[in-house]
Specification:
- With 198 residues, the chain is an alpha/beta fold.
- The chain has one domain: Rossmann fold.
- The chain contains five helices and six strands, in the order E-H-E-E-H-E-H-E-H-E-H.
- A six-stranded mixed β-sheet has the order 2-3-1-4-5-6, sandwiched between helices.
- It starts with 5 loop residues before the first strand and ends with a helix.
- The structure holds guanosine-5'-diphosphate and magnesium ion.
- The site of magnesium ion (MG) has 4 residues, from helix 1.
């Protein structure tokens, strides 16, 4: 029997945006109001069916901040898809991506090719249409386009992938968008894995 392809997924983003909560919602189907801070990294794995292919998602959840930079630098280049999460009710977490994550990726992937990225706007259950500071779909999509433009020279050329950065909105609390998110993670990750094997 053919071996199940293993897709390596790295979650990154500012702290408290809901990275661990999204992974727990997907792997355990639960939501915790209080979660311990991720120290270093957490690792989870789950089988997943995408179209007719069975894959195994190997998910790495990194603690934010400079302290764990050495871990992220080691693991990013091995991943098939990178998931960058921000909190739609906290603009600082979107700014953090432009200020820190893009620089880190540019540094780590300067001599390597970058896998596809999924940008995630999480905590949509807390978003209020009256709050001008919250981030709405249009702005998230615009940011994804900017991110793609900024990182364009670094991406792995993959014929089947038209967009290297896709934008998804989720709520780890209600579960909204979480299925779609992991479907995209598996699909993009599989395309990347297969392109690397050619
Ligand atoms: N209301 C709401 N709270 C969330 C959501 N996702 C995460 N949280 C809460 O936000 C806090 C930080 O989540 P956590 O997953 O630890 O963030 P991380 O530091 O990015 O891993 C926790 O108290 C979670 O319960 C969400 O979609 N909606
Ligand atoms: Mg965490």
């Amino acid at each position: 029997m053919a071996q199940i392809p293993i897709i390596k997924v790295c979650f990154t983003g500012d702290s408290q945006v809901g990275k661990t909560a999204l992974i727990k919602r997907f792997t355990e189907g639960v939501f915790y109001e209080v979660l311990p801070r991720t120290v270093g990294y957490d690792f989870k794995t789950k089988p997943f069916q995408i179209d007719k292919t069975m894959v195994r998602l190997s998910i790495w959840d990194f603690g934010g901040g400079e302290v764990w930079e050495f871990l992220r630098e080691k693991f990013y280049p091995r991943s098939n898809v990178i998931v960058i999460v921000f909190d739609v009710t906290n603009r600082k977490t979107l700014i953090y991506i432009g200020m820190h994550i893009t620089k880190e990726l540019q540094e780590v992937f300067k001599n390597k090719t970058l896998p596809p990225i999924v940008l995630v706007g999480n905590k949509t259950d807390l978003r209020q249409s009256s709050n001008k500071d919250h981030i709405f779909t249009e702005e998230g999509e615009k940011f994804a386009i900017e991110l793609e433009e900024c990182l364009r020279p670094l991406f792995t050329p993959i014929e089947k992938i038209k967009k290297n950065v896709i934008y998804i909105e989720t709520s780890a609390k209600t579960g909204s968008g979480v299925g779609t998110l992991f479907k995209w993670i598996a699909l993009l990750g599989l395309h990347h894995l297969l392109s690397m094997k050619q």
